[in-house]
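Incident log, support desk, overnight shift.

02:14 A customer reports that sequence design results differ from what the structure should imply. Their input is reproduced verbatim below. On-call engineer (initials T.W.) acknowledged and began investigating.
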C-alpha cells in the first residue's frame, strides 16, 4: 500500500507555528511504521517549487511529489494539508484508488463563519472521498460530516511528537536562549503571561485570556508582572477592540502589550513564563502540548487535559483567574509532578504508541478492503 498526503506549500511558510503541517509529518511517520505500508509521501499543493527548508530538518525521508507523479505513485490519497483537484480525485477513484479527507480543523465554524462573515474560502465538492476521518475533539460533528460528505466517517487518534519543538529549541539555544520553565527567585512573585490565540476565528480568541489575566491582576497586583497578547496587534485598528483593551487594569497600568505573530518557542524562551489560553470546542491543540513540554504553567479550558495544567471550565473567567493565581503560588514547588502528568499525555499521543498504530492500521485496512492493490490472503 502506497500512501500520499496532501501538503500545502506557500511563501514564508513556517512549520514551527503551523500545527497542521506538523500533524501531516506525524501522521506520515506513523503510517511508515505499519507493516503493510510500502511507502508514504507528500503530495504538493501550492505555489512553491522547493521544499520548505524546515521540512528537511525534521522529515527528510518524506518525498514531496507533484500531482502528476502522485497519480502513478500512490494507492491511498489522504487530503489533509490542502484541497486536491477534484477531477484528479475522481480519476484516482475511477482507477480503484482510495481517497480520505482527514478533517483536522473544527468543521462547523469553518463553514459557518465563511457564510456569516462573508469570508473568502476555498470550497471543494464534498462527495469527493471514500471516507472522512476526524479527531476526537470533533466527535460531536460526525453527523454533520456524514451528511455533508455522503460517506462513512470515522474517528482517528490525535497524535503529537516533540520533534518540531526540539528542532526549534536547538535553534533558539544557538542564539543564546533557553526554552523551559525556570523556577522564580524570591524577588519575582508573579508570572509573565503569554497569550497565543491567533484571533482568526471565534474558536481561538484572545478575549477570554485577557479577561482572566486582568481578573487575577485585580485580585492580586503582584500575580501578573506582564501580559503579552500575540497575534493581537491589529486590535489597535478596531475602535471597539481598543476601548475594551483600554478598560483593562493591566493595560492602563502599562502591564499588557499587543504583538504580532511569533512562534511559541521564540516567545517563551525569552521573558514570558506562563500561558493563558481559551479555545472553544477545540480540546486538542498542539499549543497545549508545546507549553506542557516546556514545563510552563498552562491555564486552559480543555476537558481533554482536565487533569493536566491548570484547568477551568468553558467560559468561566473567575475560575480561570483562580487557576492563574494558584499557578503563581504552587507551580514552582509542584514542577516535578507537573512534568510527570504531562509525560502521561505525551506517551498517549505518541505516533509510535501501539494503540495509535493499531487504530490507524484498522482504518486503512477497512478503507481498502477488496481493493485491487491490497494483496489477497495467502497470495
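02:41 Re-run completed on a clean worker. Output:
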Amino acid at each position: 500500500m502506497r500512501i500520499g498526503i496532501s501538503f500545502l506549500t506557500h511563501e514564508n511558510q513556517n512549520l514551527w507555528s503551523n500545527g497542521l503541517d506538523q500533524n501531516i509529518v506525524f501522521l506520515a511517520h506513523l503510517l511508515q511504521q505499519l507493516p503493510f505500508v510500502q511507502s508514504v509521501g507528500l503530495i504538493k499543493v501550492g505555489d512553491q517549487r522547493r521544499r520548505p527548508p524546515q521540512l528537511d530538518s525534521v522529515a527528510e525521508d518524506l518525498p514531496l511529489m507533484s500531482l502528476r507523479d502522485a497519480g502513478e505513485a500512490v494507492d491511498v490519497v489522504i487530503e489533509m494539508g490542502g484541497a486536491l483537484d477534484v477531477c484528479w480525485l475522481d480519476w484516482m477513484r475511477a482507477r480503484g484508488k482510495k481517497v480520505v479527507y482527514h478533517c483536522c480543523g473544527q468543521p462547523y465554524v469553518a463553514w459557518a463563519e465563511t457564510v456569516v462573515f462573508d469570508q473568502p474560502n476555498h470550497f471543494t465538492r464534498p462527495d469527493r472521498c471514500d471516507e472522512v476521518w476526524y479527531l476526537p475533539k470533533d466527535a460531536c460533528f460526525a453527523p454533520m460530516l456524514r451528511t455533508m460528505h455522503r460517506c462513512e466517517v470515522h474517528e482517528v487518534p490525535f497524535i503529537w511528537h516533540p520533534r518540531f519543538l526540539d528542532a526549534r529549541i536547538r535553534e533558539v539555544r544557538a542564539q543564546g536562549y533557553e526554552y523551559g520553565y525556570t523556577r522564580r527567585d524570591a524577588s519575582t512573585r508573579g508570572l509573565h503571561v503569554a497569550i497565543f490565540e491567533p484571533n482568526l476565528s471565534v474558536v481561538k480568541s484572545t478575549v477570554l485570556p485577557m479577561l482572566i489575566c486582568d481578573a487575577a491582576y485585580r485580585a492580586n497586583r503582584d500575580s501578573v508582572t506582564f501580559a503579552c497578547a500575540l497575534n493581537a496587534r491589529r486590535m489597535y485598528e478596531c475602535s471597539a477592540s481598543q476601548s475594551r483593551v483600554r478598560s483593562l487594569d493591566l493595560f492602563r497600568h502599562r502591564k499588557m502589550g499587543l504583538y504580532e505573530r511569533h512562534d511559541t518557542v521564540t516567545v517563551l524562551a525569552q521573558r514570558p513564563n506562563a500561558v493563558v489560553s481559551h479555545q472553544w470546542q477545540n480540546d486538542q491543540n498542539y499549543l497545549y502540548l508545546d507549553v506542557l513540554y516546556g514545563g510552563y504553567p498552562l491555564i486552559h479550558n480543555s476537558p481533554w487535559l482536565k487533569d493536566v495544567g491548570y484547568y477551568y471550565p468553558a467560559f468561566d473567567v473567575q475560575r480561570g483567574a483562580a487557576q492563574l493565581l494558584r499557578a503563581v503560588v504552587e507551580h514552582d514547588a509542584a514542577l516535578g509532578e507537573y512534568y510527570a502528568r504531562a509525560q502521561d499525555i505525551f506517551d498517549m499521543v505518541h505516533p509510535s504508541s501501539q494503540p495509535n498504530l493499531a487504530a490507524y492500521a484498522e482504518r486503512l485496512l477497512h478503507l481498502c478492503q477488496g481493493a485491487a492493490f491490497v494483496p489477497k490472503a495467502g497470495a
